[in-house]
Amino acid sequence: MKLDLARMSRNTKLGLLVCLLGLIAAFAGSPYKGTRVTLDATDLAGIVQREVDHVNPTDLADWILKGRSDYRLIDLRTQAEFDQYHIPSAENVPLAALPDYGLSRNQRIILYSEGGIHSAQAWFLLKAMGYKSVYMLRGGLDDWKDLVLFPSLPPDPNPEQIAVFAKMKEVSKFFGGTPRTASGATTPDSSMPLPKLQMPGSPSGPPAAPKKKKEGC
Amino acid sequence: MSAPFFKFGLFGDNISLVIAFLIGIGFGFFLERAGFGSARKLTAQFYLTDMAVFKVMFTAIITAMFGVFYLGWIGFLDISLIYLTPTYLFPQIAGGLILGIGFAIGGYCPGTACVAVSTAKIDAVVYVAGVIFGIFVFGEAFPILKGFYNATPMGQITLPQLLKMPYGLIVFFVAIMAVGGFAGATWVEKTMAARKGVRQP
Questions:
Q1: Contact flag A132-B8 (C-beta cutoff 8 Å)
Q2: Is residue B168 part of a domain?
Q3: Contacts 24+ apart (CB under 8 A), B41-49
Q4: Which among A31, A197, B60, B112 counts the fewest CB atoms within 10 Å?
Q5: Residue B3 with chain A: CB contacts under 8 Å
Q6: Cβ contact, residue pair B168, A31, below 8 Å
Q7: pLDDT at A69 over 90
Q8: How far apart, in whole angstroms, are the C-alpha atoms of residue B7 and residue B88?
Q9: Comparing A204 with A90, which gets the higher pLDDT?
Q10: B12 within domain boundaries
């Protein structure tokens, strides 16, 4: 039988093309070639230098307030530290358990530890495993306390800083913190009590099942 | 440069909303141009007289399937980074049936109803009001429905994983199914037209 393309209708040609593409696909092999893990040291160094791998504590607070669910917040500290206090919606995954924790590669992951060292190490670990959307909380829990829970007004503030502080005071109260009225302090007073874990609108304990996304035709 | 662009950080949240808006407008425009702003055209598929909806949807499915498969195959697209809607088997079957019944009765699905509203079709405005009322009822009844809503979770699965078959083989079967579906739909249209004594355009 001879194929006469000129006499075929457009639909028949398209049907043949679909069959051909399907047939090639059956023998083509895995389509996961884009998933290969390749580490580009220059690229990684560039990301580190440009600091695009950071999430600011105030931005994270804003996301939690807005109820965003398109990221997973990972607390890398010990269980005891986690039980004492953690950022609402965080999951406790100690560094050693991270590779087997079953994080999905198509999710945005935000890491934090007490300062920034453990989260930086975990960031490299996940990057080496081919995770793309990995971020660190800038300054870790220390900065979260400093900027979100116990915000303070810088000395000789300008109107913009006063406006930001007024907003942060509300955010701080939402998370159970205490805004510092005395300006000039650089670190939270160690006597300041950490808030209880039950946050308004953000119950503590095991994280809830991820929200279903609604889709339709 | 690799895809998916958003996951690789090519643009941020704000730009993604602009892109989503443009894609949405484009999607709506082509639905309208394909005649999907007409309830008569849409419901004709349930009477087997015009299978355009079936053909367009199947075309979209296989175009996307070939795109994803071959872009992944050449290494441009990281398939493991594509978001998959998690499967909740029975709630989704029930949801599909309710949507289908609403489609057959009302003449639109939610997306095409919005398209028809943009051309000021009264029936579509009533339909969208019904959709919003339905969302309200669902929201109010959610505490009762919650158990069923989260029932039979199967996670983010794909057919190759579920059937334990090579990805390419599934692509081949779906392609054959599409060609068979097209031929069948065309045959059904012709048969129905002949039965009615109407010539197919």
A1: yes
A2: no
A3: B42/B103, B42/B107, B42/B108, B42/B109, B42/B112, B43/B104, B43/B107, B46/B104, B47/B192, B48/B188, B48/B189, B48/B192, B49/B189, B49/B192, B49/B193, B49/B196
A4: B60
A5: 34
A6: yes
A7: no
A8: 25
A9: A90
A10: no
Collapsed DSSP state (helix, strand, coil) of residue B153 = strand
Identify which of A27, A32, A133 has the shortest CB distance to residue B72. Answer: A32
Q: Does A34 touch chain B (CB under 8 A)?
A: yes
Split at pLDDT 50, 70, 90, the class of B199 is: low
Q: Which residue has the higher pLDDT, B19 or A29?
A: B19
Q: Decide if the complex's ipTM is over 0.90.
A: no
Tell me which residue in B76, B77, B168 faces A28 most closely, judged by beta carbons: B168
Put simply, whether A28 touches B (Cβ < 8 Å) is yes
Q: How far is A113 from chain B (nearest CA, A)?
A: 24
Domains annotated for chain A, with CATH where assigned, are 41-146 (3.40.250.10)
Among the ranges given (A136-150, A173-187, A202-216), the one the predictor scored with the smallest mean pLDDT = A202-216
Q: Is the Cβ of A102 closer than 8 Å to some Cβ of chain B? A: no
Per cent of chain A over pLDDT 70 is: 78
Please report whether residue B146 resides in a domain: yes
Could you tell me the residue range of the domain that residue B138 belongs to? Answer: 85-153
Q: Tell me, yes or no, whether B134 lies in a domain.
A: yes
Check residue A49 and give its pLDDT. Answer: 76
A19 has a chain B CB within 8 A of its CB: yes
- Of residues B66, B82, B149, nearest to A21 (C-beta): B66
- Tens of pLDDT, residue by residue over A1-25, are 566 777 888 888 889 999 999 999 9
